[in-house]
Amino acid sequence: MAGSGKSLTPFYVAFAVIAVAGGLMIARTALKSAPRLTSETVAPLASGPRGVTMGSDSAPLEVMELSDFECPWCGQFATLQMPDVKQRLVDPGKVRWRFVHYPLSMHSKGPYAHLAAACANEQGRFWEMHDIVYQFQADWSASRNPLSMLEDYARRIGLDMDRYESCISERRAWGRVLADQRFGDSIAPGTGTPTFFVNGRQLRGTPTVDELIRIADSISARPAAAPRSR
Questions:
Q1: In sequence order, what are the residues at sequence separation of 6 or more whose Cβ sits closer than 8 angstroms to the Cβ of residue 216?
Q2: What is the pLDDT of residues 22-76, one digit of tens each?
Q3: How far apart are CA 79 and CA 66, in angstroms?
Q4: What per-residue string of b and e applies to 113-136 under the rule 16 or more CB within 10 Å gives b?
Q5: Does 194 sit behind a cis peptide bond, omega within 30 degrees of 0 on the bond before it?
Q6: pLDDT tens-digit profile of 35-49?
């Protein structure tokens, strides 16, 4: 201010320092509030069949996918090819799809997305969360607090937020993720993601929709076999 005789520069510098320090404190608090999730995290392992399925139990073909929510190639498959797979193979009853949680140790944010999707599955909304998590993979995987963004996605798909938040805070569904991960290790140790199996046989690389259609059509043309157990 003219004529005051004192410079306000020191005041503004001090204010900026306080603001930056406050912002860092908030960010650190947000990170500390997120549960640390690793394959070593103690959690009861879920029993029962591994993964989450979509499609008819009587489909002649089952495709099992080991997938990591932070894996960019998994995200590419989920956003570009999976809608076509669903429309042309799953919905007509030709294929049952099985998603197996397989978070890789190289990804630090992926476990939070797997926990969020497993919590959504408690409410029968896994696939909606699956789709939105992959759609916005670049956003939450770059965030300092991915749980906040994942909570927003849970709200968008219409989850009961009280149930969702308690599942997250208690890590209630983490045992299912770990069980899937250990199952993946048992059938394809050291593999990357995505990894696909067709009726139990591991494929090389990522299949195209047309390749899956050819496989499904060839199996449908064979004599009926005994039904598979779940």
A1: 60, 61, 89, 94, 95
A2: 443 333 333 334 456 666 666 667 667 799 999 999 999 999 999 999 999 999 9
A3: 16
A4: bbbbbbbbbbbebbbbbbbbbbeb
A5: yes
A6: 566 666 666 676 677
CA distances from 118 to 19, 169, 193 (A): 37, 13, 18
Note the pLDDT of residue 98: 98
- For 48, 69, 81, 146, the CA distances from 142, given in Å and listed in that order, are 34, 13, 24, 8
Nearest CA to 45 out of 230, 189, 190, 183 is that of: 183
Question: What domains are defined for the chain?
Answer: 52-214 (3.40.30.10)
Q: Extract the tokens encoding 100.
A: 């197996």
Average pLDDT across the chain, whole number = 84
Q: Residues in the chain with pLDDT < 70? A: 1-44, 46-47, 222-230
* Rounded CA separation 206/73 (Å): 9
pTM metric for this prediction: 0.79
DSSP 8-state symbol, 72: H
Residue 46 · residue 176 · CB < 8 Å: yes
Instruction: Return d(Cα 221, Cα 164) in angstroms, integer.
Output: 44
Are 89 and 212 contacting, i.e. CB atoms less than 8 angstroms apart? Answer: yes
The Cα 131–Cα 113 span in angstroms is: 11
